Structures are given as structure tokens and as C-alpha cells.
Amino acid sequence: MRQLTVDEESAGQRLDNFLIRELKGVPKSHIYRIIRSGEVRRNKGRVGADDRVQPGDVLRIPPIRLSQQAEEKQLHPAPARQFPVIFEDDAFLVIDKPAGVAVHGGSGVSFGVIEQMRQARPDAKLLELVHRLDRETSGLLLIAKKKSALKALQDQFRERETGKTYVALVKGAWPARLKVLDQPLHKYLLGDGERRVKVTTRDDENAMHSVSLVKVAARIPAPAGLSDSLPQGLSLLEVTIKTGRTHQIRVHLSHAGHPIAGDDKYGDFELNRQLARWGLKRMFLHAWRLRLKHPVTNAPIEFLAELPEDLRSWVPTPVEKRD
Question: What is the pTM for the complete model shown?
Fold first, then answer.
């Protein structure tokens, strides 16, 4: 049996979210089971998963056996790794995530950015992902160092108060008049359990409201050897998402007939093979600019992450800051 005392920064959190963060490695299903069964007690009384905890609350937690997967993680922790830091203070930090690295472990991935950073910063009291990026997407990723900052930043993302702009290279000539993609999305699973997303109708009961704003940054001629495959060349786009749905940009652009170069899920697979021979070995999608309010001071702040070297060679001039 163990006891946890709720600290000031956790004031108002739901019990289930508090325990998920505190009991790392314990499956969520098990956490909900011990709450429902009454084995978790708050100040000696029963408590529900959606009850809000307060500073000074004493939570009694029953003995918990970690899953085999969690035990393996403890025996074989993620290798420590530092990532390029664009900004850091006492509340949060912003890193430039490289492509090919998952943000967290799971779904066949043993570890990701957050597990590696925790190993590299053993003295950090808290490191939590504020949001996510696809594994093959590079660019700006926020990590909270305080629970209060985590809540404040996630509230901004949830209330759509942030400005998230990506740079994408797509097939063909994107029509300049097509500036708003307001199309609902539907998540589904393939036969092997892999997640996919598609554009759906507004009357679909599982439809998720999804809006992407598109601006053409540059027209790029096809490399000489690809002119037959790319008669209209390529378009460099700045895409600002007003909603943060899974694979939103990838699906919206592909559905419009202009898939992202190198996208192995929703792209033009034959073109991807040809682009790979010309040096594009990954999906050309980069989280470039992020605007938000500082979680402590509430002051507006902006972050930029330059295109990584493997993408820069495809762009005639650097993508510069624009309003």
C-alpha cells in the first residue's frame, strides 16, 4: 500500500488524469479498475474517476503489479538523448524534433522523445508532452516542466487559441484560390489494427470537425528526371491548422488531389519511390511556426524551427517568417 499527497500544482485535476501521470507504466484500464472497485481512497473515503483532487488530499493506492511490458521498460529503459532546444524556462521547453522519432512509446515503439528526455534529465521533476507530432513529422514540440504549465498549454490547444503552421511540399500546382479546407474526418482501423483517417460527410456520427488553412509559399519545378511524373511540378505550402486532428494535414491535402511528397500512408506511392531516388527519403511535413501565450505570464510568444537540412535542398529559397 502506498500514499500520494496531492500538491498545489495538481489542484483541480481529475483523479484519473492525476493517477495516470503519477503511476507511470500502469495500464489505464487497471487504474480505472482500482478506482471503480473502491481500492483507491481519498482522505479515507471513496472517490470517483471524475472527481477533482485538491492540494493536501491523501490518496491511498493499493499494491500494483506492473504489466510485463512496463517491467521490461524498467529493466531496459530508453537510451538517454537530448534534442535541439529552441526555448526553455522554468515552465516548459520547446524542442526541434527530428523526423523518424516517435514522441512517445507504444503501438510497437519501445520509446520515444519523452522517454529519452526523461532519461537524459534524471533530475527533472516533471517532463510531459503538451501535444503530439506524427513520427515522420519534424519540427516544434512542446514539453511541460510543471503541471500548471501543462494544463495551461493544453487548455490553449483545446480551445484553439494557438497558431500552428506547418510547411508541406505537395504534388502538383496547388490552386491559389483553395485557401480553406473545412472537411470532417473519420478515424478507422485497418485489418492489422493500424490507424487511418479519411474525409467523411457531415452527417457521419463519428465525423470530427477539421479545418486547415492553406497558403502557397512557392512553386517548384520538377527535377529534370521527374518531369513526366510531375508535369505541374511541386507546391510548397504553409498550412495552419485550426483543429488538431490525427493526420489532419496529410488527409486534407491528399483528398484535395495534392498528396504530401514522401507520405507513406496517404501519398502517391510510385512518386514517393522516384523522389527517394532523388534524395527525399521522408515525408516533407515540418512543424514550422507556433504562436501561443506563455503559460505563466500570458504574454504572446512565437517559435520558429527552420527546415532541416534534408528538406532544405528542395526549397529554392529559405522559408522566411511571414505574418
Answer: 0.81
Q: What single string gives the DSSP state of each residue in 232-271? A: T-EEEEEEEESS--TTHHHHHHHHTT-PBTT-TTTS-HHH
Q: What is the pLDDT of residues 208-265, one digit of tens each?
A: 999 999 999 999 999 888 989 999 999 999 999 999 999 999 999 999 999 999 999 9
Scored b (16 or more CB within 10 A) or e, 169-203 reads: bbbbbbeeeeeebebbbbeeeeeeeeeebbbbeee
Q: E strand or H helix at 73, and its extent?
A: helix 68-75
Distance CA 317, CA 201 (A): 39
| Catalytic residue status for 134 | yes
Does the domain made of 77-158 have the CATH classification 3.30.2350.10? yes
Same fold, 2-68 and 163-312: no
The domain spans of the chain are 2-68, 77-158, 163-312
Q: Of 96, 134, 263, 268, which one is the catalytic site residue?
A: 134
Q: What is the CATH code of the structural domain delimited by 163-312?
A: 3.30.2350.10
Q: What is the pLDDT of residue 73?
A: 58
Fold annotation for 2-68: 3.10.290
The C-alpha atoms of residue 276 and residue 280 are separated, in whole angstroms, by 5
- For the cut 50, the answer to whether the pLDDT of residue 139 exceeds it is yes
Q: What does the pLDDT look like over 30-74, one tens digit per residue? A: 898 999 999 999 999 999 998 999 999 999 999 887 655 555 555
